[in-house]
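User: Predict the structure for this protein chain, please.
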Amino acid sequence: MRLADLRAFALGLPHTTYVKQWGECLVFKVAGKMFLIIALDADLADAVVFKCTPDEFDDLTEIDGITQAPYCAKRMWVRVGDLAALPSAELKRRIQHSYDLVFAGLPKKTQSAFRAA
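Assistant: Here is the predicted structure, written as structure tokens:
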């Protein structure tokens, strides 16, 4: 999946913003909470990092090219270092799920305000 496609998909999720931080990383957030990191190598997506459940973590890290994300909560974030490890549709589904997990963890008042907007 190309960088432009990843960025467009993530920004298409409601109330998503992004910043460039930690050097060459695009960090996508909802209400200031990150749900996706795209590590860049020049203008290419080098790797993606997203949130998952502990059960999903076990399944995902059994796939070649997917590991525990460094510096992120153990067993809750994975790093897809080989973007061919997941088909494009599956990667999008996982990014959407990461967004949903983070959104569900937001305060109820914030969730209600976003749903009303």
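The helical segments are 3-11, 54-61, 88-104, 108-116.
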